[in-house]
Design the sequence.
């Protein structure tokens, strides 16, 4: 599969990135190069191999269900571009 | 018979009853000031990494087993990517590829018909934050407030197969699901606090066909009753639209409780969530032995409890179904039975007075003041003949409202039933003397005339006479005449 300019546009939209025409062309090319390289993996037969969630064999890392103190209210809202009524305020959503 | 058949699948989100969130130690307590139970993990601040709450996994497995699901011995989390203000990381941690539980079922009963509804899957995921819109609705708001206290609370999403055919079946499914989750203690299942939320996928097709029609998704239903009404409305809307030659649009629609209609919210494009493995949370491996341990520790579930009430206590299936439909009610029944082992009488009082008052006052059992010990005492007073059944209902209502001891209420109000034959004999003699016509009627074979005479005695004693005793005495006295 080849990446086309409209694929890059869709990716940019979904990643909330604004790209210039030059950038779109450049990313189309570099993404295709990356995909070509990754494509070599398809030669391997993986039908019976479990997907690897982790590169390290890490399973069942749990914490106990005990309450820990988090951020205080002021700290929590410290990075909010806008705050009101004790909450993060966001512009109209839809 | 309708020419159309409805196809309904339900997605139910249930908050797990943990003290802390799924990936961080923030409290899950309901009703706190906005953004006071948050930390870098549930705010999605860069560089923060969560660690999985063990209790959430245990509760999810418990729920899965109670819903007759297979439990995955190797499962993990994935990222579902989308932008929305209630999701600070830009993705929701969920189980897309390997749900913790799958392939289960629960049985419902509608109009005396049993039906099995299969459960496709139940997976663990984190709750997003809560949005509060400044305007009346999301579309009329110039801004919205975000409260991340809810962000990261552990949920299980339970997805049914599209086997539900009516609003009534949907309601029965939800009621059964709720009671199973309540019995197993995995969730508070309080719809009004948002710990149980339901979306419905609905389509219609000509009866007898098997391909699916275009479906709509209905949101914003705040009660089981609302789910039923919304589904019934939506089925009618779709059928009418098709009958008029229109086509159904795949869209998300919101239920408007006041108007009793569903309203288009947004068209449903094929969302591209670009799901991939969540590599910062370890995967979960469960041994079959551990799963069996959890299964063995499951409490008695609603169906089994219902059967027990029918088999051991001889209750009608209908009564047993209602009583065991709520854990609180079932426990109340058992507690009364311990002190007053007459199942049918207890059931009558629960089905009659208790449920009548709870419904009339719109209360939960926990809010009523009456105790099982109190009811047992009351039933004892009625059995001994101290008070009549009718007086008992009055006393019951006072106990329900104020929680007083029935003996005390009876004493304070002078509600004593007269069963003493000597005391009654004089009143009966007077009533007989004053009503020669009824007496003659009775003696000439109109046996129902005795009802009038009993009524006169009750009137003369201000309702305090024991009607059973009066009846027997009257018959004896009239026979002698």
Sequence:
């Amino acid at each position: 599969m080849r990446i086309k300019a409209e694929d890059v546009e869709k990716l940019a939209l979904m990643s909330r990135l604004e790209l210039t025409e030059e950038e779109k062309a450049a990313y189309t090319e570099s993404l295709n190069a990356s995909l070509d390289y990754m494509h070599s993996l398809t030669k391997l037969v993986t039908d019976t191999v479990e997907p690897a969630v982790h590169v390290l064999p890490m399973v069942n890392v749990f914490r106990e269900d005990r309450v820990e103190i988090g951020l205080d209210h002021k700290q929590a809202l410290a990075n909010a571009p806008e705050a009101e009524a004790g909450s993060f305020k966001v512009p109209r959503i839809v | 018979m309708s020419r159309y058949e409805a196809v309904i699948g339900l997605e139910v989100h249930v908050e797990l009853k943990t003290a802390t969130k799924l990936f961080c130690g923030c409290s899950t307590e309901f009703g706190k000031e906005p953004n006071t139970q948050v930390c870098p993990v549930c705010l999605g601040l860069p560089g923060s990494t969560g660690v999985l709450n063990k209790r959430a996994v245990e509760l999810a497995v418990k729920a899965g087993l109670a819903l007759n699901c297979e439990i995955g011995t190797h499962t993990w989390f994935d990222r579902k990517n989308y932008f929305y203000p209630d999701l600070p990381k830009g993705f929701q941690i969920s189980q897309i590829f390997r749900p913790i539980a799958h392939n289960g079922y629960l049985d419902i009963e509608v109009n005396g018909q049993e039906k099995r509804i299969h459960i496709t899957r139940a997976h663990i995921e984190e709750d997003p934050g809560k949005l509060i819109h400044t305007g009346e609705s999301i579309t009329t708001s110039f801004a919205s407030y975000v409260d991340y206290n809810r962000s990261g609370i552990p949920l299980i999403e339970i997805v049914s197969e599209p086997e539900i055919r009516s609003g009534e079946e949907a309601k029965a499914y939800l009621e059964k699901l709720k009671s199973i989750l309540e019995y197993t203690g995995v969730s508070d299942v309080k719809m009004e606090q948002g710990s149980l939320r339901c979306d419905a996928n609905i389509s219609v097709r000509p009866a007898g066909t098997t391909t699916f029609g275009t479906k709509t998704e209905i949101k914003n239903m705040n009660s089981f009753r609302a789910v039923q009404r919304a589904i019934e409305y939506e089925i009618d809307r779709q059928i009418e639209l098709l009958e008029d030659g229109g086509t159904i649009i795949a869209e998300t629609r919101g239920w408007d409780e006041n108007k009793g209609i569903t309203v288009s919210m947004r068209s449903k494009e094929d969302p591209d969530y670009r799901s991939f493995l969540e590599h910062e949370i370890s995967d979960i491996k469960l041994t079959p032995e551990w799963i069996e341990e959890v299964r063995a520790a499951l409490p008695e579930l609603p169906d089994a409890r219902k059967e027990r009430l029918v088999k051991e206590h001889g209750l009608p299936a209908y009564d047993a179904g209602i009583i065991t439909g709520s854990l609180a009610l079932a426990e109340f029944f058992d507690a009364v039975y311990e002190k007053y082992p007459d199942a049918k009488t207890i059931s009558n009082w629960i089905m009659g007075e208790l449920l009548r008052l709870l419904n009339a006052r719109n209360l939960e059992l926990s809010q009523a003041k009456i105790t099982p010990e109190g009811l047992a005492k009351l039933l004892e007073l009625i059995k001994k003949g101290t008070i009549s059944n009718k007086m008992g209902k009055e006393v019951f209502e006072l106990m329900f409202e104020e929680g007083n001891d029935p003996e005390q209420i009876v004493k304070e109000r002078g509600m004593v039933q007269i069963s003493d034959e000597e005391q009654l004999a004089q009143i009966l003699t007077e009533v007989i003397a004053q009503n020669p016509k009824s007496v003659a009627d009775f003696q000439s074979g109109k046996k129902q005339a005795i009802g009038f005479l009993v009524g006169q005695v009750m009137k003369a004693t201000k309702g305090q006479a024991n009607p059973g005793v009066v009846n027997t005495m009257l018959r004896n006295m009239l026979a002698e005449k």
Remarks:
- The longest helix of chain B spans residues 224-243.
- Chain B has three domains: 4-291, 300-412, 421-480.
- The two ends of chain B are 64 Å apart (CA to CA).
- The mean pLDDT of chain B is 93.
